[in-house]
Amino acid sequence: MALANWNLLRRVAFTGVLACSQFMMAQAESFRATDLQGRPVERLDSSGSKAVVLIFAATDCPISNRYIPEIARLQKEFGAQHVAFWWVFPNPEDTVAVVRRHELDYSIHAATIIDAKQDLVRMAHVSVTPEAAVFAVENGQLREAYHGRIDDLYFAFGRERPAATHHDLEDAISALLAGRPIASAGRAPVGCSIIPLTLVAPAKR
Amino acid sequence: MRSLRQIAASCVFMVSWTAALLVGTRSTVKAAVVPNPSQTNPTWARDVAPILYKNCTTCHHPGGAGPFSLLTYADAKRWGAQVVKVTQSRYMPPWLPELGHGDFADNRRVPDANLALVKKWFEAGMPEGDAKAAPTAPVYDTTWQMGKPDLILKQARPFTLPAGGTDVFRNFVFPYPLKDGHYIRAMEIRPGAAQVVHHANVLIDRTGSFRRQHPSDWRVGVPGMEILLDAGNTFDPDSHFLFWKPDTPALIEPEGMPWSLEAGNDLILNIHLKPSGKAETIDAEIGLYFTGKPPTKQPMLLQLDRDDALDIPAGDKEFTVEDELTLPVDVQALGVYPHAHYLGKDMQAWATLPDGEKKWLVWIRDWDIDRQAVYRYREPVRLPKGTVLHMRYVYDNSAANPRNPHDPPVRVRAGNRSEDEMAHLWLQVLPAHADANGPDPRLALEEAWMRNRLRHTPNDRVSLYNLAAAFAGEGKFAEAVPEFQQVLKLAPGDAETLTALGAALDGAGDWQGARAALQQAVGSPAAEKQQVCDARFDLASLDLRHEELAAAKTELEAELVACPDDADAHELLARADAQAGDLDGAEKELRETARLKPEYAAVYSELAQVLGQAGKLEPAIVEQQAALKLAPDDADGWNNLGVLEARTGKTAAARGDFEHALKLQPDHAQARANLARLAAAR
Hints:
The complex is a heterodimer of chains A (205) and B (682).
Chain A: H1 11-20, E1 51-56, H2 62-66, H3 68-79, E2 83-89, H4 96-105, E3 112-114, H5 119-124, E4 128-129, E5 131-138, E6 141-148, E7 154-156, E8 159-160, H6 168-178, E9 192-193
Parallel strand pairs in A: 1-2, 2-3
Antiparallel strand pairs in A: 1-5, 4-9, 5-6, 7-8
Chain B: H1 3-8, E1 12-13, H2 44-55, H3 73-88, H4 112-123, E2 151-154, E3 159-161, E4 168-175, E5 182-190, E6 197-205, H5 209-213, E7 222-223, E8 229-230, E9 243-244, E10 250-252, E11 259-261, E12 266-273, E13 280-282, E14 285-291, E15 300-305, E16 311-312, E17 319-326, E18 331-339, E19 344-352, E20 358-364, E21 375-383, E22 388-395, E23 412-413, E24 424-431, H6 441-456, H7 461-473, H8 477-490, H9 495-507, H10 511-522, H11 529-545, H12 549-562, H13 567-579, H14 583-596, H15 601-613, H16 617-630, H17 635-647, H18 651-664, H19 669-681
Antiparallel strand pairs in B: 1-8, 2-14, 3-13, 4-7, 4-12, 5-10, 5-11, 5-14, 6-9, 6-12, 15-24, 16-23, 17-22, 18-21, 18-24, 19-20, 19-22
Helix pairs in contact in B: 2-4, 3-4, 6-7, 7-8, 8-9, 9-10, 9-11, 10-11, 11-12, 12-13, 13-14, 14-15, 15-16, 16-17, 17-18, 17-19, 18-19
């Protein structure tokens, strides 16, 4: 698929897009976020991407951490099929330094975003970590396709099955790539609440 | 001499876990907070911090077993939403038993009012309040909780838990390295990566059997949820729950109830690990704290068990198994450990007393293997003789059970893998009236337990063996014989059983039958070296008692070729030599015995006797003094020393020895007579 060089950061360019399509939900907002070098991340897709997957995570959330190997597996499975994966850390305490340390500890080798303004949280309509969001890349624009749990390993906070029986994220990506409708949209994920920015006490830390 | 092997026969003991009761608290925090209804909004400093410190921070502190800390206001605020969610659902703190169904010392259920207060605080925006008024945060030590242990056992090799995948159940062997036995008053386990260790059981392998079963891989850990151990030749039932979970750092035994470790024992750490997302290193240490005081109370772990009845159809939402066991003696129940795997749902245990009263032992409505625990009663539960113990477990093998390991559900039976099932209830009991002169009351419990197992599974070899061994231990040899014979029908030619049968036949008065069984054991083609040595020893011992000196000597010499370090065999051979008048031979064998067992007092007394008979009085005195150094309260020993000294003309010393014997034992007739002879000779 040939993609136009459309840049999500260009807020001004947006308005027109918003007006022209009901589908382009994710493009209704722009975002400001940085990578682990502190550089702004300007776009989520790259040349040839068919889909973008965001995994919202927190360095201190045990459930989020437990999914790291599963996400690595999915990334391996779908990476060759032009699906771009991003780890997104939206919590205020997950600074560049904290996340870098964490990625070393957990051997994460994947593109990572610090979503300090929580623009991506709003864009993807997520509320906990871990939670996944999938966007279809259509003519260089992102169309929201799925957000919710990764799978059903956990059925309540800390309570888990011996193994997952429904792989919602995997199914959603497969369906998207195959052009099928996504079956299980919107299942509530189990995880740690994303810390609202309003909750941060400036005096602390 | 080696009477235990003759009397008590062997016990192959089924152990599927093991686990300890008293839990060391790491820090003390003031008693429960009673919320004041007149307050406006609760604050962290005044209301929430005390609740968290009392109920949460033992695990939730930096470096603790909990996945995050709750020590500071910032922590509480970070995790406030989760704290409310998991306490309202009562997922936290971990506590499965229903209120009012067993009164447990380590009850972790937080009062409703406290949980309501935390919720109200969260809804009010989690205000900090006056930070200066907050209680001082507890301090958690990262070193040994009880100070430096007397002995630290280390894992042979570190184990790497993979970052992801399913739970891991693994067994690590920790050989007990000392030559001398010790009583253990407390144990602490430092697993190395607390956050991934869900729980651990420590089993005592008295015979090193697990290491022998896994010669090539015991150092790296052996996978498996449950293991089977050979308990060796003496009746030494498992008696303590050596169970560890993250909030129970030290296992402190009650006064008078230490457990013991002997040379050659192994501790096996049976550990449940949960991957965390990154590879973790498990390099566990076990700290042991000794006491010189031997146990004054002998508890025992009893089991109700219906593994035989577990055949759960796919989709069955309510598959029920029950078991009951009638107590043959008065006991006090000290603790309980229910156990099932992922399909277990509702687990009940209760006791029906002889007068009809129903006492709950435990009730868990929503079993969760991840939070299994040993529950210790606040006060011992008195259960008189004739009480019936009941267990009733319900399993949910439907797709609606989120923990069901099979999707779709399949038929499930009992087994060792986590996707199999189990139906066990362990109860730690203390016999109420142990008569020092009577048989160990735990033998009657063992007998009742094994009869119950055989009711469900009539040809279970381990149960038959243990029942027979219990009979033999109680002196009911005539009842033991047919049970051992039944085991031999299931396992023809089994040397261990033949040896035990020989002992039982001997006890029942059938000397020739005993001889035949022991000879069969010696010649058994499948027998291990040690089993042949045991059989030869018992055969020699039998022959010696029946004055068959030459036969006894032949057996012992043959045994010592295969097992040259068997001190008991050297000692028995010395006795055969002495009876045959070969005092030099006896002396040589006794010196060998003393070399192998230098702390064994009796061998020096025996040497003194042999040397005395040979007329070597001065060397005899030296040996007798050595014996008394090790066993200074032995009245016979002092009397014998007096005789030797009197014979060498040391009259004053001899008088002192006889008087010492009489001080230790005023009715010691020989010492009194010897003293009178000394006086008359003057």
